[in-house]
Amino acid sequence: MTLSISDLTQAFEKNHLTSISGVQRGIERETLRIQADGKLSTQSHNKALGSALTHPYITTDYSESLLEFITPVSTSIDESLNQLKDVQKFTLEHINGDSFWPMSMPCVVDDEEQIKLANYGTSNVGKMKTAYRQGLKNRYGSMMQVIAGIHFNFSFSDAFFVSLQEIIGDQQPLQDFKSERYFALIRNYKRFGWLIPYLFGSSPALCPSFLQGKPHKIPFKVAPKGCYYLEYATSLRMSDLGYTNSSQSDLHICNNSVDSYVDAVQKAINLPSKEFESLGVKVDGVYQQLNTNILQIENELYAPIRPKRVAKSGQKPSDALKEGGVEYIEVRAMDVNPFVSTGISKEQMYFLDVFITYCMLKDSPLINAEQKKAFTLNTDKVVLEGRNPDLVLNDKGRETNVPEWGNEIFTDLAVIANLYDKAYNVNCYSQVIADELAKINNPSLTPSAKILDDLLTKDKGIVGWSMQYVNQFKQEINEHQYTVFDKELLQNIAADSLIKQKQIEDADTLDFDAFLADYFKCS
Question: How far is residue 493's CA from residue 90's CA, in Å, rounded to a whole number?
């Protein structure tokens, strides 16, 4: 049964309102460590922070300089943000005077070779993580890999899915229904996901050092203080300069079901690449990459949204999905918000609740490769010229633009926001939707427009502009009082993580070559 957004929200409000309020969220926030002059810090990950391999909340991503903060699952937005503030406060106290860069695009990096690969110790799994990063360096360069972002993890409660099944008359096993609906959500995210960089893109400009003198095809303009920008750009992070990966453009990852997705991913990680073959694998006794396939491992598949399930120890993500179905989704298209110390605001999280629910409830036909390409092109256009009044988008073959299409989508978003307000007995969801709709009708209200206006009119380069927030946020975080985690708890977690890393290292029985052969034999 296909019901409209209005019909579904009315049914939830009438008999299933409480099932709306059980959504769970988690945040993964990346940030570069910088020195007082705004340049990249070259310090190693501090031992007082624990083990980057085993710490549940504080780790590193690609580089020793690229910190990643992870919040546990929570049903409270305030709690999630306080968890993030707590771990940031603890980290700031243990990084020898370094600070957090507030932007997605990197700070000043004089030489790409200054970017140290993340070190996870001497265990086989730790060595594999570093060797994988060596492969990323050799394949794409380190600058692309130290772009920071926000990953937003989201799941609906089982009660929500039970209610939705009852409303639409579905009688599948619950997990099958959940997986089916999560993939419907993902397809709709790809249809309508251009909204995210338009509304929240915060990287319209970059430091010239990012290019490291390498050729590019983007027609940058130069701001008065020397940074590069595009007049209508929203998120250079999401462009070909950023975390997307053009070498994967021919992979046909299907988002129509768990089985089709897993089959496509597992095929992709076994697809040889002539380009990467030329790099070699183990050269003079040192791993230059894990293998010569288009994807070394599944994590190398770049996507703005992913279906996820918590994997068992040693289990590949796709095997976890195939065995247990989708547990939650991970939205990966968010720029770091440079206007808040947490990198993501409460208001953004309210909006994501509503938008993700819209993608879940909106009718979502299966898509083919041609349709997926059209969706991707819409997003590509928005990241480079989303505020261009002449921009044309493709809505199922209909030529449209941001104001026209955006207002249509926001009509449904307002209905869902009203449902959330009633479920939580608040009015903040409707207020946020009204505020974001204003950006649809007035591009100058978007963060990308505000940043660019400052860079062009206020006599500050991108470093000077960013450093005012670096210092403001540093003071704010230092003054923050531990709320969810206390300092002693975080000290104990750090110490325990070092013990766990040592236990993993001591438990290894295979040499690294044999470990890798065993890991990949069933891929």
Answer: 12
pTM greater than 0.90 (yes/no): yes
Polymer length of the chain? 523
Cβ atoms within 10 Å, residue 496: 15
Q: Which two tokens stand for residue 233?
A: 């750009």
Using alpha carbons, select from 457, 456, 472 the residue that is nearest to residue 205: 456
Query: How far are the Cα atoms of 1, 18, 258 from residue 8, in angstroms, in the given order?
Result: 11, 14, 25
Tens of pLDDT, residue by residue over 414-451, are 999 999 999 999 999 999 999 999 999 999 999 999 99
Q: Token pair of 148, please?
A: 């920071």
Tens of pLDDT along 42-53? 999 999 999 999
Domains of the chain with CATH codes? 5-520 (3.30.590.20)
Provide the H-helix boundaries in 388-486. 402-424, 428-441, 447-457, 462-479
Q: Could you give phi then psi for residue 67, rounded to 5 degrees?
A: -75, 150
Q: What tokens were used for 374?
A: 């059209």
Answer left, alpha or beta for residue 100, where phi above 0 means left and psi between -120 and 50 means alpha. beta
- 235: Cα separation from own chain's centroid: 13
Residue 450 carries which side chain, given as an amino acid letter? K
* CA atoms lying within 13 Å on the CB side of residue 359: 27
Per-residue pLDDT tens digits for 252-273: 788 899 999 999 898 888 889 8
Low-confidence residues of the chain: pLDDT under 50 = 244
Q: What is the dihedral of CA 188, 247, 213, 277, to 10 degrees?
A: 150
In angstroms, the Cα distances linking 508 to 122, 134, 253 are: 10, 22, 35
What whole-number distance in Å separates Cα of residue 274 and Cα of residue 98? 41
Helix H or strand E segment including 515 = helix 512-520
As a whole number of angstroms, the distance between CA 352 and CA 363 comes to 18
- pLDDT for res 217: 82
Tell me the two tokens of residue 447: 């963060």
The C-alpha R_g of the chain, in whole angstroms, comes to 23
Give residues with Cβ within 8 angstroms of 351, minimum separation 6.
199, 432, 433, 436
The tens digit of pLDDT for each residue in 206-251 reads: 999 999 888 888 899 999 999 999 999 999 999 887 654 556 666 7
